[in-house]
């Protein structure tokens, strides 16, 4: 009887030890997975090529863009996205570089700011790190004092001087004339002053007015608020006004073509962009984007690929 009682006690003790060990093992496993009891366990799913897939901590490269109604960049009213040659290049370069790029809309003044009579300067958006770069900006002498640039991917537009239709004004003498400029653009009063062969090219403060849009420039010129405008030779001006400078009018405003403008402390951006752009050209994709620009964006006025693209 005593032996049977001892056997039962031994079996019971072993059962208690086994159950305790099992409970401790489960608790330990739960803690090793980083969850508290009762919480669902995290699930890691591996898929083929996941090393190239976007993760929550992967850098997003923010690139600012505006729109001014030409085939370079315009607002597509149906999709409500910015489209054009400029976005096509950004998409292609970022794809080759395997970078997660996001185009973000902002006004041009937040990339490059200028006020009538004052030296132009970096805009608060780019200077303040709101985004990594501003796409489609020409390399001007003033901008190179403040920012770095990628390799140009687009030929800079011509510069021109316009008056309202029927005007008899000559571009060769601006003495006492009121001149309008597009705010934030490279073609400003400081560039105009480089044309020493034009009488009165160094303007007084009272002769200078900046406007925020092409529409306001055209309106101000036609209303007599200003006498002439000195601007990029866009199709909008050619269709609404009279260009008074010759077709071969020299551009003294630029150091290089349209690029992505970025801060000097962002060399990684410039390096990977330039590498990817070189590969875009080598693979013939740049040539393809150029030659099909009218197929994709021909319903919007603008330059053809021989004027738009580098090397044609």
Automatic annotation (TrEMBL):
Domain Solute-binding protein family 3/N-terminal: 72-291
Alphabetic keyword roster: Membrane, Signal, Transmembrane, Transmembrane helix
Membrane-spanning ranges: 7-29
InterPro entries, sorted: Solute-binding_3/MltF_N
Domain of life per record: Eukaryota
One Pfam family named in its UniProt record: SBP_bac_3
Name of the protein: Solute-binding protein family 3/N-terminal domain-containing protein
Organism listed in the record: Strongylocentrotus purpuratus (Purple sea urchin)
């Amino acid at each position: 009887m005593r032996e049977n009682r001892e056997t039962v006690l031994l079996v019971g003790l072993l059962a208690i030890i086994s159950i305790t060990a099992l409970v401790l093992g489960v608790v330990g496993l739960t803690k090793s997975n980083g969850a508290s009891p009762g919480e669902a366990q995290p699930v890691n799913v591996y898929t083929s090529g996941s090393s190239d897939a976007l993760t929550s901590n992967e850098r997003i490269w923010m690139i600012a863009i505006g729109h001014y109604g030409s085939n370079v960049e315009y607002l597509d009213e149906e999709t409500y996205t910015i489209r054009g040659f400029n976005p096509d290049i950004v998409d292609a370069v970022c794809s080759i570089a395997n970078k997660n790029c996001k185009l973000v809309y902002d006004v041009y003044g937040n990339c490059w700011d200028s006020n009538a009579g004052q030296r132009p300067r970096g805009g608060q958006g780019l200077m303040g790190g709101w985004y990594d770069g501003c796409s489609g900006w020409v390399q001007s002498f003033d901008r190179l004092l403040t920012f770095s640039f990628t390799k140009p991917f687009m030929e800079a537009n011509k510069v021109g001087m316009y008056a309202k239709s029927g005007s008899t004004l000559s571009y060769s003498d601006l003495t006492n004339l009121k001149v309008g400029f597009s705010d934030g653009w490279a073609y400003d009063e400081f560039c105009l002053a480089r044309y020493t062969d034009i009488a009165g090219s160094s303007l007084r403060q009272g002769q200078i007015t900046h406007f925020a849009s092409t529409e306001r420039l055209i309106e101000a010129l036609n209303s007599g608020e200003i006498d002439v405008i000195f601007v990029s030779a866009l199709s909008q001006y050619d269709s609404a006004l009279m260009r008074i400078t010759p077709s071969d009018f020299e551009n003294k405003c630029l150091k290089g073509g349209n690029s992505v403008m970025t801060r000097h402390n962002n060399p990684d951006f410039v390096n990977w962009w330039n590498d990817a752009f070189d590969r875009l050209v080598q693979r013939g994709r740049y040539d393809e984007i150029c030659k099909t620009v009218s197929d994709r964006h021909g319903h919007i006025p603008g330059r053809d690929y021989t004027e738009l693209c580098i090397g044609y």
